[in-house]
Specification:
The protein is mostly helical and about 350 residues long. It contains eleven helices and eight strands. About 45% of the residues are buried. The structure holds 2-acetamido-2-deoxy-beta-D-glucopyranose (2 copies) and copper (II) ion. Pfam families: Tyrosinase.
Length: about 350
């Protein structure tokens, strides 16, 4: 009798646990109220400061995202990884060279980080790529640990292995498409992108053309000049200059599809680059939080006259709910909840 009683109690207990976890997932843990304090703050780290074991599991998680079906179940995009790229392609004209550029990409990278954790079980730190460490280094950019064939994202493209499509209307600088990456976890034959280059839909390899021309612009002194901007408008414009700005140098330094305004997120390095750009913005905000934590400017549309405000609504089709610019300004609040190791 005692045993039976105990068994019934156990059964009841496990049912309760079961129900609680089913009920808890969609409401409380997945979508906490925007603006509420964070339950946990994730500390993002530079790629080479992350344990090799975690670097490998990060790469495995990216590959997992590439295998998961797209949230719309469709052909284009064909995976969860491509959901993020497709959203970037669709919204390119609306989210670049405008006020929401930094806020929108901050949230995009955060949604991607959450997908790696929640959908692919990644438990380590989310990596950023601190280009200054390569800019200040004696070795060529192509020798950066970020391009390591085993503990990195593979190297540059090999000339002659990729032919740029005839329609280059959304491929502004085809000479940067040196060739297919032939080393590392995303090498040709192992990873095939379906969206891009540009707005085209083609099956293709990961295209890179690592370009040493940009290494001097990655030096910490050069980057500091940009972060030293005293108002957001100056900062926003100076970082986005393709040839000198810190947004452009990461894209141009990697070359290939990373230089494509639309389809750049075909390269998993896109997210490490943009997280570092976000880190530069956060550092800029932190130098004078009273004035900068909630400072925004820039047109709502490319070349437009209306200025972006805190109430501006940003959307993330396929990826998550709408958020305002205000919602992403303070990293210590939901839906952000992360910080940088340095
Ligand atoms: C590297 O960038 C420079 C400057 O834009 C350009 O002249 C050169 O063709 C590029 N090389 C490659 C391989 O992309
Ligand atoms: C999200 O924002 C977009 C663009 O402003 C808008 O078209 C859409 O209706 C919004 N969706 C919701 C659910 O509010
Ligand atoms: Cu972008």
């Amino acid at each position: 009798m005692v045993v039976l009683n105990y068994l019934i109690q156990l059964l009841f207990l496990s049912l309760t646990i079961c129900f609680t976890s089913i009920l808890a997932t969609p409401t409380s843990s997945k979508n906490p109220a925007i603006g509420s304090p964070c339950k946990k703050i994730y500390v993002h780290k530079e790629w080479r400061d992350i344990k090799v074991k975690d670097r490998l599991s990060y790469i495995a998680a990216v590959k997992c995202l590439m295998k998961l079906p797209s949230s719309n179940g469709g052909k284009d995009p064909s995976s969860r990884f491509e959901d993020f790229q497709a959203t970037h392609i669709d919204l390119t004209e609306r989210v670049h060279l405008v006020g929401q550029f930094l806020p929108w990409h901050r949230h995009l990278v955060n949604l991607y980080s959450k997908a790696l954790r929640n959908e692919c079980g990644y438990k380590g730190p989310i990596p950023f790529w601190d280009w200054a460490r390569d800019g200040d280094s004696k070795v060529p950019l192509s020798a950066s640990p970020i391009f390591d064939p085993v503990t990195g994202f593979g190297g540059s493209g090999v000339p002659g292995t990729y032919t740029v499509p005839e329609d280059t209307s959304t491929i502004p600088e085809p000479f940067r498409y040196v060739g297919c990456v032939q080393t590392g976890p995303f090498r040709q034959g192992v990873y095939t992108a379906h969206l891009g280059p540009g707005k085209l839909v083609t099956d293709h390899c990961l295209i890179r053309g690592v370009n040493e021309t940009w290494k001097p612009m990655m030096r910490s002194g050069e980057i500091e000049k940009q972060v030293a901007s005293t108002d957001f408008e100056t900062f926003r414009i100076v970082i986005d200059d393709f040839t000198n700005g810190i947004h452009g140098i990461g894209h141009a330094g990697v070359g290939g599809e990373m230089t494509n305004f639309w389809s750049a997120p075909a390269d998993p390095l896109f997210y490490l680059h943009h997280l570092n750009l976000d880190r530069m913005w956060w550092q800029w905000q932190q130098r004078d939080p009273a004035n900068r934590l909630y400072q925004i400017s820039g047109p709502t549309t490319q070349g437009g006259l209306i200025q972006t405000t805190m109430d501006f609504i940003m959307d993330f089709p396929r990826l998550g709910r709408n958020v305002t610019v205000r919602d992403v300004m303070d990293l210590a609040k939901e839906p952000n909840c992360f910080t940088f190791a340095y």
